[in-house]
Write a structure and sequence with these properties.
The chain folds into two domains: 98 residues, no CATH class; 490 residues, Methanol Dehydrogenase, Chain A (8 Propeller). It contains ten helices and 38 strands.
Length: 620
């Protein structure tokens, strides 16, 4: 059915700033396209034609329309033109993209850069050593903060109060876990603006404009005196940046994308002058489209020279995909594909190895390096060993789709990735062990001296699309702290839900204690789930963990007693004047540094609760 433009629709086109010629082109483009008729609103017609099937409930990976409408117009245009929705928007003209972005965008959203310029710090930034660095606060990804850097003890936790809140303009999620020095908090944002915020006041020292959303944690290099020197991070379009930590000036940038929808999800690991970049993609979403030729992405890791950004080596988790069959829509299928690395690589300096976890294959046939922990040689990227815990796992967004599932591989799951990075720790007896948690709900202890031999395995949760273990775990070498999400819907789940925080003996996998977190209302609503999908963070005596319902808690490291709790799912008065509210805490875990507890709240995927705020708490 054609969409006929009424006088109201014509005025809408004029109101978004199109010239006379552009307006006529837009009118013609919309009238000539076959769309549902939505009286007086061309943006709604375009949305119904191109977007509604996924965003109105057909695809659980896709944010809801309400979540999209929290974004600024620049963010939506970028997503459709060059970002994560480029393939889905490929049938739209530039004029149509502009119309739909203006239709969907928050009318009150302010440019992130304009907002930052109004809240600049006075004086000049000087930097000391990092006190929270990288995603896991160590190259071993243990997520442990020593008392000397934490500044918050079990005695302090009950007295935590909100110190300040910072709102991210035009955003529906806040998922870039920060890195911290005593003077500054460094974090990315959905708009692509990267911030250096004053750690005490939240004013803006500087900003850097990345080409796309920055959703991973920055890594900080130091100078010969141990002071913060260079920040390394990646964006959703697979660009890697080296930025001066003091000034925000670009040192170099490099694209590591070798697939149209390749991206960087996990954080970059820096070791001895090299950057190890995990490679994932958005092709799992593209596969939802029946006419999409699924799939050709190859997961892996790329090593770059930290000084220049030049490539050193590249490792792929699957061989070059070959033609297989054609789907029912006539599109060519390829395989094997996928097995992305969407978590932070772990360094084993003693053995000269890099450990990574992989996800599922996107298409048939399933391969031998999906759902696995892989050890690579640091100097060359050569495979030292592979420990695959689940074979035959191939899955993409077409699986479970209402109607024809033409791009769902024959394996159809279970989609039990290693989304959490492997942890390397040293036990009391002096022996090293690799600790791995999987979306299946299984935990593994592996021997780094015996090619990853499984020493023990334990079921911690029933498993689910968001875990089981989703984004990460933490350890102080005496206890392995595991957050379990156990979100429902995965038919391969085993046993009852065990949402909550659990402690295990890292040497044996023996359960030490559990703090179960019941849902407070209807199970399928994320706003009700005290599911721990984001990674926990630990100090010598406190565990901090945030949940999908926005609850942030401090637990005793000895038994899981709740010491403090706050509901982040509310509106906040922010120091930068942005209308902001908290939501689901997912992907980015809490950070504890210099007496501050820092957490980003809001996550708009999987039907979760959007939000756009960074919250900073202290006990003083």
């Amino acid at each position: 059915m054609r969409l006929f433009l009424s006088l109201t629709a014509t005025l809408t086109l004029a109101s978004i700033g199109l010239s006379g010629c552009q307006q006529k082109d837009a009118e013609a483009a919309i009238e000539d396209s076959e769309q549902v008729q939505v009286e007086g609103n061309p943006g709604e017609g375009l949305y119904q034609k191109h977007c509604a099937a996924c965003h109105d409930g057909g695809n659980t990976e896709a944010p809801t329309k309400a979540a999209i409408q929290l974004n600024g117009v620049e963010s939506i245009r970028a997503s459709l033109s060059t970002g994560s929705m480029k393939a889905q928007a490929s049938m739209m003209t530039p004029i149509e993209i502009r119309i739909i972005a203006d239709y969907l965008a928050s009318p009150s959203s302010e440019s992130a850069l304009a907002n930052a310029e109004k809240h600049q710090c006075k004086g000049q930034l000087s930097l000391s050593k990092p006190i929270w660095n990288r995603w896991g606060n160590s190259k071993r990804n243990v997520r442990f903060q020593p008392a000397v850097n934490a500044g918050i003890t079990a005695a302090d936790a009950p007295n935590l109060k909100l110190k300040w809140a910072f709102g991210f303009p035009g955003s529906a999620r806040a998922r870039s876990q920060p890195a911290v020095t005593e003077e500054a908090i460094f974090t990315g944002s959905q708009s692509g603006l990267f911030y250096a915020l004053d750690s005490q006041t939240g004013c803006v020292w500087w900003t850097f404009e990345a080409k796309a959303e920055v959703r991973n944690a920055p890594t900080i290099s130091t100078d010969k005196n141990g002071r913060a020197k260079t920040l390394y991070f990646g964006d959703v379009d697979a660009n890697v940046y080296a930025v001066d930590a003091k000034s925000g000036e670009l040192i170099w940038t490099r694209s590591v994308r070798d697939h149209p929808v390749g991206t960087i999800t996990g954080s970059i690991t820096l070791h001895q002058g090299r950057l190890y970049v995990p490679m994932s993609s958005l092709e799992i979403i593209n596969a939802y489209l029946p006419d999409y030729e699924c799939c050709t992405f190859r997961g892996g890791v790329m090593a770059l020279d930290a000084k220049s950004g030049e490539s050193v080596w590249r490792f792929y988790t699957v061989p070059e995909p070959s033609k297989t069959t054609k789907n029912k829509a006539g599109a060519q299928n390829y395989g094997p594909s996928g097995a992305p690395v969407w978590s932070t690589p772990t360094v084993d300096a003693k053995r000269g190895l890099l450990y990574v976890g992989t996800g599922e294959n996107y298409s048939s046939p399933a391969s031998d390096k999906s759902d696995a922990i892989i050890a690579l040689k640091l100097d060359s990227g050569a495979v030292e060993w592979v420990q695959q815990t689940i074979s035959g796992d191939a899955w993409n967004a077409a699986c479970g789709r209402n109607g024809s599932q033409v791009n769902c591989p024959k394996e159809d799951g279970p989609d039990f990735d290693f989304g959490a990075p492997p942890i390397l720790t040293t036990l009391a007896n002096g022996k090293d062990i690799i600790l791995a948690g999987q979306k299946s709900g299984m935990l593994y202890g592996m021997d780094p001296d015996a090619k990853g031999k499984i020493l023990w395995e334990t079921r911690a949760g029933m498993g689910g699309f968001n875990g089981g273990v989703h984004w990460g775990m933490a350890t102080d070498s005496k206890t392995l702290f595991v957050g379990i999400a156990d979100t429902p819907g995965n038919r391969f789940a085993t046993g009852p839900s065990r949402q909550g925080l659990h402690g295990y003996d890292p040497a044996t996998g023996k359960a030490l204690w559990s703090k179960f977190e019941p849902n407070v209302c209807e199970e399928k609503a994320h706003k009700c789930m005290t599911a721990l999908s984001a990674p926990p963070t630990i100090t010598s005596d406190v565990v901090f963990a945030g949940a999908l319902n926005g609850i942030l808690r401090a637990y005793s490291a000895d038994g899981g007693e709740i010491l403090w709790s706050t509901d982040t799912r509310r509106e906040y008065e922010t120091l930068n004047g942005v209308n902001a509210r908290g939501g689901s805490i997912d992907s980015a875990g809490p950070v504890v540094a210099g007496g501050l507890l820092i957490v980003n709240s809001g996550y708009d995927k999987f039907g979760q609760i959007p939000g756009n705020v960074m919250l900073v708490y202290s006990a003083d």
